[in-house]
């Protein structure tokens, strides 16, 4: 009986020691990211900074060399080739976003097929959670930029579709556009759907009535509900 108790105590002590070592290792692996101005933040603080940032982001190189140090910025990512990421393999997502990015106040973010680098730290090797957060943030910003650019120019978004009938739905896929054509294939209307999938803008190319100049625009005062 004493042997059984002693053995049980040994097992408990071993488990406690292992748990302590694991906890220490976990604490040591917490990510610290250095921002452009030298400020050090935790991974959660870094994500909060990204998600609250509303300025421009710039793609400064299609290369993924983390030593890239050119101070000349190219244009914002209005013309970035993006597509819906639903059910898209992460490898495809990384191919779309690959390159060196500059985020004012944050610094350079390098996206490669192997991971994401911030300040020389490989995020995916430290925390897959933060790597996926950064990828999702970059993709969302790219989709929003592409959508706003297409809406301003009146062109098709990357996520575009066509429908034949009398009217378009008030809701659709987020950051998308849809054309309404008549039975003869003539374009009647192009509708844009915002980040929530609600109708935001219509460009009318033809409809009944007199005194109308085509094309003309109608903005939805309450997206998906009330049109001007």
UniProtKB/TrEMBL annotation:
Annotated signal peptide: 1-23
Keyword Signal (UniProt): yes
Region (Disordered): 148-193
Taxonomic superkingdom: Bacteria
Keywords: Signal
Comp. bias intervals (Basic and acidic residues): 176-185
Name of the protein described by the UniProt record: Putative secreted protein
UniProt source species: Herbinix luporum
Taxonomic path: Bacteria, Bacillati, Bacillota, Clostridia, Lachnospirales
């Amino acid at each position: 009986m004493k042997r059984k108790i002693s053995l049980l105590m040994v097992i408990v002590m071993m488990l406690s020691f292992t748990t302590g070592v694991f906890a220490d290792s976990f604490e040591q692996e917490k990510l610290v990211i250095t921002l452009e101005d030298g400020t050090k933040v935790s991974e959660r603080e870094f994500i909060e900074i990204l998600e609250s940032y509303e300025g421009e982001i710039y793609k400064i190189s299609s290369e993924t060399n983390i030593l890239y140090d050119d101070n000349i910025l190219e244009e914002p990512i209005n013309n970035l080739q993006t597509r819906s990421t639903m059910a898209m393999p992460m490898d495809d997502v990384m191919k779309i976003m690959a390159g060196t990015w500059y985020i004012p106040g944050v610094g350079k973010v390098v996206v490669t097929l192997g991971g994401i680098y911030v300040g020389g730290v490989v995020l995916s090797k430290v925390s897959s959670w933060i790597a996926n957060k950064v990828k999702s943030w970059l993709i969302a910003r790219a989709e929003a930029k592409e959508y706003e650019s297409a809406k301003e120019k009146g062109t098709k978004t990357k996520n575009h579709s066509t429908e034949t009938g009398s009217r378009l739905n008030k809701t659709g896929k987020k950051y998308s556009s849809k054309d309404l054509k008549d039975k003869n294939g003539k374009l009647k209307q192009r509708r844009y759907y915002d980040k929530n999938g609600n109708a935001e803008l219509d460009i009318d190319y033809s409809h009944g009535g007199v005194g109308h100049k085509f094309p003309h625009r109608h903005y939805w005062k309450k997206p998906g509900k009330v049109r001007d």
